[in-house]
Amino acid sequence: MKGFTKIATAVAAALSAVMVLPAAAQDAQDRQEAHGDFYIGANSGFGWLDTDRVAIMDGQVREYEGGTDVFLMGLEAGYRIFDNWELRVSYTDLAADVDDFGSSANGESYGGDLIYNMSPNFYTGLGITRVKLGGYDTKFYKGTFGYRNFIDNNWAFRWEANLQQNETNLTEVMTTVGLQYFFGSTGQETKPTPAPQRAQPRPAPQPAAAPVDSDNDGVPNSRDACPNTPATYSVDEEGCVIYTNETLTETLLVEFEINSSQIRSGATSDIRDMADFMKEHPQLDIVIEGHTDYTGDDDYNQWLSERRAEAVANSLVNNFGIARSRVSSKGYGEQRPKVEGTSAEARQTNRRIEAKLSVTNRVPVIED
């Protein structure tokens, strides 16, 4: 019952911590894709020691007070090695209350964890920690459950509960809250909307004493509103060039392997073609849209589609020289399948990013 009571207490603390998060945390979820891969952090909390644990104080064996009898302050550093896996190391100072004793037992712990991000906010992990406290040096195996929410592109709040047990069945529970700072933010700035340009007035027609057609367009100068038009261009009754609209379109489609946001080597030429099109038309911006197939959890698919869109956006910027302010990305998860069906071919088609740019140019009509 002792281990069960500690686990139940930790779960209750976890629910309380999640319920008191500010409403603004929902807005931070849109920034999850902007964080970097390396982070450092600081944390503080408390814990419950096993009732069988004792301390050696002034040469005597003493028991701890019980309850929330240990206070924690620590530092940590982590690195994301894959899309949803990360490694973390930590160091913690400990102070535990000793029963009927005038001072606390001080100590330290350090260890490492392998963390798995189940969703953009929740994670779990396994690790090993070494605790030096009250004259004893003990190795524990540790299980972790935590919640992380990004405040902005670099700073994140996290809450965490740890259950640790050694080979002699000492079972202890710790809970902490902390702040983490992520290096290498990839957040994008919003490009301001340019002010509309004022239309240039047409030049006044040149007066002529006699019906003279100086530019040989078939309209005399007396009513030619657009003098000096090229002879090969078709003109209207006022002598101005007749234009037609010509639309140019460039489409980008990149497919991905299942559960992967890594761009296939064969897709590089398609991304280069889109980059060349954007360089030819610098007035255009692009939105990269990421999609997944229907397999997997909704939250995971949403997160994976955002990573895919971000991968292609970063390739345009980092590999082909497109300005960051012209490129943005958005994930739709499994909400917008390209084809219906459950076959392997249909799922492959739906694991993709898409982007489409069109530009309409006014071109003069050439006379036959």
Automatic annotation (TrEMBL):
Topology versus the membrane: Multi-pass membrane protein
GO cellular component: cell outer membrane; pore complex
UniProt-recorded name of the protein: OmpA-OmpF porin, OOP family
UniProt-listed GO biological process terms: monoatomic ion transport
Originating species: Pseudidiomarina planktonica
PANTHER family registered for this protein in UniProt: LIPOPROTEIN YIAD-RELATED (PTHR30329:SF21), STATOR ELEMENT OF FLAGELLAR MOTOR COMPLEX (PTHR30329)
Keyword Transport: yes
Compartments, record wording: Cell outer membrane
Main localization category: membrane
Domain OmpA-like: residue ranges: 243-361
An annotated Gene Ontology molecular function: porin activity
Keywords attached to this entry: Cell outer membrane, Ion transport, Membrane, Porin, Signal, Transmembrane, Transmembrane beta strand, Transport
UniProt-listed InterPro entries: Bact_OuterMem_StrucFunc (IPR050330), OMP/PagP_B-barrel (IPR011250), OMP_bac (IPR006664), OmpA-like (IPR006665), OmpA-like_sf (IPR036737)
Domain of life of the source: Bacteria
Start and end residues of each stretch annotated as Disordered: 185-231
Signal peptide stretch: 1-25
Keyword Transmembrane: yes
